[in-house]
Write a structure and sequence with these properties.
9 strands, Jelly Rolls, disordered N terminus, 32% strand, four-stranded antiparallel sheet, five-stranded antiparallel sheet
Length: 129
């Protein structure tokens, strides 16, 4: 009985952890309240951007529900409420290499700018196949 209970708990944990992982990708996409959606990368939606002194918005493809925004080297600042971030000022600071998950409600209002030096950012969009 104890083994059966342990096996049931293990299956429950593994099943819950599968949630929203983009298939064909190592970047997990997890958006609150959307646990039952199966995510998949949208074909031809990968964007490689240079973030410099001008504010950059995402160019969101149709049917996109989320995005993995990967900062490749230098720091950026971002906002997700539609206001403009500013170098060494407004916005959330992301230093160095990091991947952010941007969910449905923020895709249209997400903005970035470099903090001190230009940086490369790649964006992969995900949808529900």
């Amino acid at each position: 009985m104890k083994r059966l209970l342990t096996l049931a708990l293990l299956l429950l944990v593994v099943g819950s952890a599968q949630g929203q992982v983009g298939f064909g990708s190592t970047t997990p996409i997890i958006c609150p309240g959307m646990n039952s959606i199966r995510w998949a990368p949208i074909p031809s939606s990968l964007q490689n951007l240079t973030i410099s002194t001008s504010v950059v918005k995402l160019t969101v493809p149709q049917k996109a529900w989320a995005a993995a925004v990967s900062v490749e080297n230098n720091a950026i600042r971002f906002t997700s409420d539609g206001t403009d971030p500013a170098p060494a000022g407004a916005g959330t600071l992301v230093t160095g290499v990091a991947t952010l998950t941007v969910c449905t409600g923020s895709l249209a209002t997400f903005k970035m700018i470099r903090d001190a030096a230009d940086t490369k950012v790649s964006v992969q969009y995900y949808g529900n196949p």
